[in-house]
Design goal:
The chain is of the alpha+beta class. It is built from five helices and eleven strands, in the order ααβββββαββββαββα. Strands 1, 2, 3, 4, 5, 6, 7, 8 and 9 form a nine-stranded mixed beta sheet that branches. A two-stranded antiparallel sheet has the order 10-11. The protein is globular and about 50 Å long. It starts with 6 loop residues before the first helix and ends with a helix.
Length: 216
């Protein structure tokens, strides 16, 4: 089991190397492990609101080194989108047939959504797939971002780009378990409110998976 997250771990110059090592160890020791919305709702199954085959997608967990420590890049989706309008999300989307895999898809989507040049991303590894109730099989791709926070959000998809301290997201004390009623049953999910941002649902679930993989 990995050591708990500490200020010392996050402030070390090799925090990225430690993340990369732990991602590699997890992929080697638990290659088929999956997580998802069903982790907190096992009775609903992995694709509670979807009847067809799962749809492949990928997101980028981009981490920037700042003076006060590493910070994770997130987006606020625009309010006019058909799904998850106005919600906090990682840059990402469906894996296209022309993509070589989840890494290329995550980097392509990040460039389309926030203007992030793929050459600025140093890949650290990937998390196990995250299965969503809406039928997506999402591979989170983790990498460090160089060159600061000079992002250009695509107004068709992204209302705002912001960042949150990695230490805040990796502190289990900030991982709230909340619930809402869905089809007459209580559905549970993670939420991580930060300042005026409400991080919840799939995004918070992926963050929890990151924590359980790397820091727990």
């Amino acid at each position: 089991m990995n050591a708990p997250v500490t200020d010392e771990l996050l402030s070390t110059k090799d925090w990225a190397g430690q993340i990369q090592t732990r991602l590699s160890d997890t992929a080697r020791l638990h290659p088929s492990e999956e997580t998802g919305d069903h982790t907190l709702n096992p009775e609903l199954g992995p694709y509670a609101k979807w009847d067809g085959p799962p749809r492949d997608a990928a997101v980028l967990i981009g981490i920037m080194e700042q003076t006060a420590g590493p910070r994770v890049v997130l987006t606020q989706r625009t309010g006019h989108l058909k799904s998850h309008a106005g919600q906090v999300a990682f840059p990402g989307g469906k894996i296209d047939p022309t993509d070589s895999g989840p890494v290329e898809a995550a980097l392509r989507e990040a460039e389309e959504e926030i203007g992030l040049d793929a050459r600025r991303v140093n890949l650290l590894g990937t998390l196990s797939p995250y299965l969503t109730g809406s039928g997506y099989r999402v591979v989170p791709v983790i990498g460090t971002i160089s060159g600061g926070s000079d992002f250009k959000p695509n107004p068709d998809e992204v209302e705002d780009v912001f960042d949150v301290p990695l230490g805040f997201l990796m502190n289990p004390a900030n991982h709230q378990k909340q619930s809402r009623e869905w089809q007459g049953k209580r559905r549970y999910f993670y939420a991580m409110p930060f300042e005026d941002r409400y991080i919840w649902g799939v995004t918070a679930g992926i963050i929890r998976s990151f924590y359980e993989t790397v820091y727990r």
